[in-house]
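ugh finaly. both done.
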Amino acid sequence: MKIANSHTRMLALVCAFSLLLGTLLSSLGTPRTADAAALQNLAAGKPVTASGHADVYVAANVTDGNPGTYWESVNHAFPQWVQVDLGSQTTVHQVVLKLPPGWETRAQTLSVQGSANGSSFTDLKSSASYTFNPAAGNSVTIEWSPVSTRYIRIHVTANTGWPAAQLSELEVYGQSEVVTWPIPGKIEAEGYSAMHGIQTEPTSDIGGGLNVGWIDVGDWLEYNVHVQSAGTYAVDYRVASNASTGQIQLRSGTTTLATTAVPNTGGWQNWQTVTDYVTLSAGQQTLRLYASGHDFNINWVQFAPDNADRIPPTAPSNLTYTEPAPDTIRLAWGASTDNVGVTGYDIYANGLLRGSVSGSTLTYTDQQPQNATVSYYVVAKDAIGNTSSPSNTVTRYGSGGNDSGRGANMPFTILEAEAPSNRTNGTRLTPNYILGDFAGEASGRSAVYLDRNGQYVEFTLTAPANALVLRNAVAENTTGTISLYIDDVDKGNFTVTSKFSYVYATPTTLDRLGYDNAGSKAYWLYEDSQLMLDQVYPAGTKIRIQKDAGDVPWIYVDMIETENVAPPASNPNPNLYVQVSNSKSIEQALQEFRQDPSKKGIFIPAGEWTLSSKIHLYGRATEIIGAGPWHTKLVAPQNQTNTDIGFNIGQEANGSTIRDLSAWGNYVYRQDGPGKFIDGNGMRNVTIDNVWAEHFVCLYWGVNSSYNTFTNNRIKNMFADGINMTNGSSYNVIDNNYARGTGDDAFALFSAIDAGGSYNVGNKYTNLTATNVRRAAAFAVYGGQGNLFQNLYGADTLTYPGLTISSLSFGYNTLGFGDQDTVIDGVTLDRTGGDFWTSVGADDKINDYQNFGAIWLFAGDRSFRNIVVKNVDINNPVYFGLMFQTKSPENLPMENVRLENINIHHAPRYGIKLVVSAEAGQGPVVGEASFTNVRVNNPGITAIYGEDRTPNFRVIRVSGNNW
């Protein structure tokens, strides 16, 4: 079990060490020399085990330094014991036992026992009755002649105050032994001479014993060493981690000898060896392992002489390319240098090795089609295999644009109903961009309408499938069926409903859309239906959606998702995962897991499992595993609405995983606060993978939540955001997720500090798809620094841009954009933009709303700077491609904004709009932006609007633009 947050370490230890039940493993290796250390509480923070515990009163409480927390054994089951592992043989002569200061007087009959190996114990102090009296601080001191031991056990046979053993603190005093380790040689991590912040625990690594864990940034371990000979040494670290955030600095005094990254090994007890190289002077010295990263375990460190060449070549310089002929790209670069000699260069194209040349060759010719976009870099290498850092990167943009399969790679295929290749005798809707219209709210801005018996639309499978999702719209207050035929054979019906659609608002108050469900006009008209088929049907199979007698009176068919779903998974290991069943609820399974430290979590098999409230994860990291999102379904009561279900992850459960299941909420309007499938402020190192969630307010809204991973999730039909990270949430990975029909920004980053924190930093939003966003943007970044949005696909936003880049505070305490670049790299936006808010006093008035472009850059009331937007394709935006706007009266300028390699196709008005006046008193835009290879193709009116009316905004045309 691993607790990541140093600010909650004391709370976390209450639960964490309950894992250490059972017999402890072998002792440390033999030290070479020993020196006396000062008297101290040798048990402080050391690992503890016990014969058992009642409720939450775990053994770890006796070494946590807090007399208010306590261990209580199993009731009515004497004798009972609790023991502490001092980590090595130690000379001891005294224990101090405590109970909470306010407790009434009681006497406990107990003995003090010692052991060298954790299995064979002898009495250090024979059994006697000891009185704990609040007048004496509820403290008892027991002494004996000094003896060398490793394990101290308190063996209790009676208690006059309660039918169980009870202790709040177990303090041990004596003289610890400090070892001096020889180099070359192996150092056991727990054999430190001094430390800060860490704890130890039994290890499952080869050889057993203890490892060091609970490591946060700033923690350290010191070792007395004797280096036999000066020179270069290979230093091996034996590490384990469930994250990619670990980093070790080896220090000697104030000098950092090496900095070594700790990889994600796949678990806290999945051990790997990582190697670095250091130069050491000879003689007696102190080496410090300093944690410059966090969340990893270490078992040992080993030093061995190293005489090999470890110096890599310098990076190749000034990489350039030319195109001497069609389909031909010639690269050239400046030579690298090396202490021995450069033997060759490796050339990478789009991240993959493309070819190699000798060390004397400084060019490479590649063949690529004209429409391919290719990025190159070059790496130098020497004879021993040392490689340089990459050269600079150059990109040749293909004639076909930048777009190449952007977005999430999901296991389903989407087939649009209105596609010309589909057969239908229904009505294909004429596309439009009208909110609250069955065409305007459809994917692709069109659908097929069936309103007479026998009308159909027929799809052809492009890949094998045994499951379908039908996006459709039916009449308000309707639940019914629509018929399904496969290769002309009746295969039953979809159940279709309007329960979660038809959300009302008034056109003049769209800011309340989603909240009140009250007004004069219905919006958000489409909903999904799911159906597992009777078999896997091959590609080429005909799937027909048909209105028959007995079906709903009419239906709009928007699209289908086709998927080949694997059979339900079984429990991966019944010895490690408690299985939920009809006789064992999820809460009961979790309780059984918490009481057994050998368990890793729970398994929820296929079926529908009704939840009436949030499930709280606490105590330690917990794995929640389902049989697959089509099979394991967590369902809110369907006869209720707006029930807050899902998971609440406490900070002591950091490191938890939830995967391979689906969740079906019952929200019918937005409430800010409840309604998140995942709750967990301050959450760290949590993984949410392959989860399918619908009809909630959000999947997750993160507050000061860092180092978490959200992958392979489906987020549909929400009333607010899909995933939004705020209040200092940093270094999260949001990768390969699909969102459709969110009620606010699908994927967002909001650098608010109203609930604490600082800039959101180092987050990676990659390989994401967001479509049919009902309110707000597909992707939104509101401040922060050093964050990356990459490989994104957005389409059919109903009211807002496909991408919002904004420094508006929304009236909260927020930060704008910081010193590090915010990078948006690789985006395709189809049919994005829309109408929202009012536009009284607008200079370029189209209707009564503010009209948004596909990408909206908005300098609000916080700093707007250091923004890079590159490699973007904007296709058929609702109004404009790029839109620049400033909030008044602040009029903060846009600074260091760079737009590179952007294609804007078929904007009906302008490719680029500089807002002169969004509404009365708002504008014009202020600052500057640079444009490189920004191409506006076939605009409806003009390539750029407003340049002559925005005197305080500078358009910097660098090169490659066509306007």
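ok and the 2nd:
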Amino acid sequence: MSRQPLSRLIHVAMLALCAPAMAASGTPAANAHDVLPFKATEKTLPNGLKVIVVPTGFPNLVSVQIPVQTGSRNEVEPGKSGFAHFFEHMMFRGTKDYPPEKYQAIITKAGARQNAYTSDDLTNYYTTFAKQDLETVLKVEADRFQHLSYPVEAFKTESRAVLGEYNKNSANPMQKLFEVQREAAFSTHTYKHTTMGFLKDIEDMPNQYEYSKQFFDRWYKPERVTVIIAGDVEPAKAIALVEKYWGGWRRGTAQVPVPASEPAAKGAQYRHVQWQTPTLPLVTVAFRQPAFSDTQKDQAALSMLLSLSFGRTSPLYKRLVQDEQKVDQLFDFTPGRVDPSLATIGARVKKPADALYVRDAILKTIAQLRNQPVDAQNLAHAKSAEKYSLIRSLDNTEQIASTLASYVHYQRSYGTLNRYFRVVDSLTPADLQAAARKYLVDDAMIVTTLSHDALDPLLSKLPKLADLDSPPAAPKFDVLVQKTSLPQVRFKLLFQAGSAHDPQGKEGLAALSAAMIAASGSTERRIDEVTRALFPLAGSFSVQTDKEMTTFTGTIHKDNWKQFMDIALPLLLSPGLREDDFRRLKDTQRNALQLDLKDNNEEEFGKERLQANVYAGTGYGHPVLGTSKGIDAITLDDVKAFQQKAYTQGALHVGIAGDVSDEMVAQLKDALARLPAGPGLPATAVPQGHKPNGLEVEIIEKNTRATAISFGLPLEVTRSHPDFPALWLAKTWLGEHRASSSHLYQRIRELRGMNYGDYAYIEAFPRGMFQFFPNPNLGRKAQLFEVWIRPVAPQNGHFALRTALFELGKLVDNGLSKEDFEATRDYLMKNVFVMTATQDQRLGYALDSKWYGTPEFTQMMRDGLAKLTVADVNAAIKKHLSAKNLSVVIITKDAAGLKEKLVTDAFSPITYDAAKPQEVLDEDRAIGAMKLDIRPEAVRITPAAQAFEQ
């Protein structure tokens, strides 16, 4: 079944051919910039009749178009609306020499296609026929224009037919809506009524026979008429025929002024049409627009602006029609008119409950147009599309002639089309913004709705446009700039919002909300479109969520900055928030928790479980990914609410690095100033970790061939704590990540060959198995001292735990030697530059320093290390660390067997494939017999499937 587009419904409702906002051309001396290649011949006869002849190059056919500068605009007397359209009908009622039957027989014999239409400003009569009948057609057309004759009976009959047409059109809701809209908009000008006229006037039309002759004699005169002859025609012969048959038509004498202007609008208006039968709601927003001009930019600029903003390529169309599917049609209607008229944006809404939402979406877009210039490239594309769409349509003589008629009527000039398009071609983003500021104003706004069902009463309350998109206030955030010569530019947007803010029962909300920014597209582009757009730019926009912060990172070469900003920033400023993306990302997050973490990665699983156990009952007591039930409980509305509260200016820290200009920094600030100005989410409390009494063990029972071990304790020491440099040095000596020189690595991996590596930490290091250095922007208010024993053979699990505790115990009891202290400090004084070597690290650590309230990281660490003594370090070790009071997480297959060994303090032997020195074997025996004193009630077994379920 074919579907009638709303643009066609508008055409029917207005009974007008809307001059497209494009230009066509052709002058006696063809201009290379004109749209049409034809050479036209123009002549004005002594009686004022204008003749335009256009050889089109198409053979055999001729199209005669006769636009009359008479439309509903000319219906100036009260009670007499509808007569311009009425005469479109009466002109087929014949003359004395050519009564209707004879006239129609001639047209039929010519094999012609013939019709007429009326609009606000003109009535156009057109006939397309074989070229041999040109003289006949010009003769009979001249006769009816000069000698139209109809008896009162025919007049009354036709007036009833016009009423029938009105009644037919009255079934179209759009027709009625436009009637109400125009009646509200105009108090003086004749644009107050539509082309059909007011119903009361149409009903009275049978009584207006004498007036009808007066109307015809007044407006149907040669000085108001153009005869366009296009096709397979010789200009000189065609003009001679017009002179022969039309030259005797006498010029008119009537002087009846049309109201030239409408009084200034005095305020926004709302009108509602209650429709009697079921129909989809309509919502329109109209403003006064300037008169058509082929020299001034205003009307062309406004038309172009609304087409870009509400047409099929606009972000709002994509959002409302394609993505959210709240409307089935969205349109803009900016007809060129002789006098100032109305520009309309409208939508047909699928559900009455969405009418207010749709209205506000339209109004917000309008408000933004006044403050944000359109993209220059988008404007260039739109101008190109208008030009070439017009050219594409002009593929036959009749279309060429009819397009000319829709423009010629303004000034009876062939050049109007070309001049108008030159205006269009000259438009700039500034021109469009100037038009928005001049015409899209509250006082001139008319909102009209139509529905069968009740609509939200708030529709009658019209907001101020300025309230919908006020120019951004001064940003409520600072921008940290690290200027270098690197052409690759990177910015970080750090929000104080993380998984510690997850509501109870909705664990995972912060991570999912962030993913819905970075990986679900904007209102303008779906995520696949974003990916394709960024591909040739080699740009990226990613996110990292942790306990206290969410950080969005954009990176792009400076040459592609502007394009990147237009693609990436809308992800944050106007996120797409589509239901299908929500389902996709929710599934991804659930799989990341259940499969990637729990099923496929015992090491990260154990580290996350240790963190959760130590900080159980606090905001740090679940993975950033959330819990299975928490993820399942999250709705799209939860995400929207979280984003609205979390991603605000008050919660934002911004950094940018690379070869950045002041202009680029200003552009970033201006864009981010459109974020909500609120303070962000409430600050989280410092989590109080569980301090174990002895060794408290959770064994995760999982079908695995290895045993992974993590243990640790809560740590109040963060980067802002005075003991941070001391503990950093201690953990580095004990178990520097991925460093073969560290103590645990040497004793467990190198000496005994038990596993791949053994490390220690005083700061969170998620995803540590994949990286040498932790990511920046993992700031936390409380940390975890942790030892990570990478998987060992199950039979060595008990011994590996004892070995790590044995070495840790020696460190706590004996401290570092002066030699070990100095060697480790010397390493760190230099290594701190290595760990902050990349652009991302330098920028990220700088933002972290602002978050912690500390000096720049490398300087802080070097200054702190330089002041340390071995006594300082050993005192910090004794104060903050323990080898006896620890939380332990072990992932293994034989959970019951391991528990039995732990609670009985059974001897844990170890065997080697190669000979070992006697002192190692002696130490092994001592370690294997070391008492851990683990109480049975301090060991619990948890099936892996149950971990992080809720």
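summary for the 2nd one i guess: The mean pLDDT is 92.
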